[in-house]
Amino acid sequence: MFIKIFHVFFIHLATTTSSTTSTSTSISTSSTTSTTPTPPCTPTSVGSASTLYSTSSGSATSYTCFAYEWTSPTTGLVTLAFELRHDPDYWFLDDVSVYAGAVQMLSNTGFETGSLSPWARTTPYGSCSGIAGHVCNGSYSPHSGSNYLCDGSNGCADRISQQFMATAGEVYVVSFWLKSGTTGSTIYAQVTLS
After folding, report:
1. CA distance 152 to 86
2. Would you kindly state where each structural domain of the chain is located, as residue ranges?
3. CA distance 88 to 152
4. Are the beta carbons of 142 and 148 closer than 8 angstroms?
5. CA 6/CA 171 separation, integer angstroms
6. 57 Cβ contact partners less than 8 Å away, ≥ 6 residues apart
7. What are phi and psi for residue 150, nearest 5 degrees?
8. Which residues contact 123 (CB under 8 A, 6 or more apart)?
9. pLDDT tens string 112-166
């Protein structure tokens, strides 16, 4: 009988010890998402096409919004370029953005630093006359803020461009505001990303 009682007591003790030493662990995880800011106008999907916009008309005499969804075909540096010619007036450009998710890929998007940098001006079609693309200041024609780009390149188009690092397959939302001066004899604008 003593052996029986001891055996029962031992089993009870082992069960109690086992139940008090067992633990359970729960792990909680959280995830974050990056969302692209809402574009200023509805974007048009252009796939991986290098030309986003082209016109030979100066009818947009008030600022017009343009937006595009562009898928990069490659990984590496790509160039957003504005080729502008206006005989004999100006093009006005402001608030240029390229977003990958929540990340702005460009710098000095509204030209508010007062300098063109890191935008670069080049003349791929030779030496143009008129007024080269530069940063203007004042209430005459910004879309927002105080500064904007004025480009009165005459005789041929000059090129205003900025580079950024792209990832193949990534979708980039490009937007900008463009305005033409008065109607001229030859007006041309082309926007490319490649």
Report:
1. 6
2. 44-193
3. 7
4. yes
5. 74
6. 180, 187
7. -110, 135
8. 156, 158, 159
9. 999 999 999 999 999 999 999 999 998 678 999 999 999 999 999 999 999 999 9
